[in-house]
Amino acid sequence: RKTCFRISTGSKQWDGILNGGFQSRSINEVYGEFRCGKTQLAHTLCVMAQMPKDQGGGEGKVAYVDTEGTFRPERIIQIAERFGIDPETAVENITIARADNSEHQHELLTQLNENFATGEYRLLVIDSICALFRVDFMGRGELNARQQMLGLHLNRIGHMAEEFNITVFMTNQVQSDPGASALFAGADGRKPIGGHVLAHASTTRVLLRKGRGEERVAKIQDSPDCPEREATYIITTGGITD
Ligand code: GTP
Ligand code: MG
Question: Superkingdom of this entry's organism (predicted)?
Fold first, then answer.
């Protein structure tokens, strides 16, 4: 659609496989093992979202739902410096919402809906989408309840993305049980958590993994308009780059 935009990852190669970046009015998910750069990408997008549209930005504010306590304003300052935007303004334009448990994570959406109604916001980050649901619904018998709550949560997020023309970017973990991944995984042997509910909600999914040395690899898994291509990227003080 005409008013849709895409937010750059900070890496030209990665933007290339995404046709320019993460699209608004849709839910984008990256998943992968620890230290592959999910949170660093989330920080980079917080800055990119504020950039002019002709530079891969969204010209708007950002809401950041932090479920793991890993948001660092110092990193925003460093990334803003790389892109030549005022670091203090860059930090001020990010509304941080720390979620304590899955119920709280869902309730935060009510406040964020009010923020989005100002029309100033272009990006919603959720780092990470499932972690708190996983903790709150641990038992085997609770899986159905968990998936139901997660479904409600994602449904609301999807409506907000659509209504306010926002890019939703969420991070996700991979299943740690090697038995389960051997049984169900795709070619890469890694399966995102969240089951069908999350698979259905995510418009675009990207699998991240460690490559050679400092190199990381992003692979599109499931996208309506991007083929399953790979791109390499690195993590620097200035955020994600080629
Ligand atoms: P989990 O949340 O644990 O699953 O991992 P993640 O995928 O979110 O990883 P994260 O984005 O936190 O990436 C961690 C990597 O980023 C580590 O290898 C760090 O060395 C690297 N990193 C973080 N900050 C900097 C920085 O300022 N400079 C550089 N060069 N690397 C950084
Ligand atoms: Mg992280």
Answer: Eukaryota
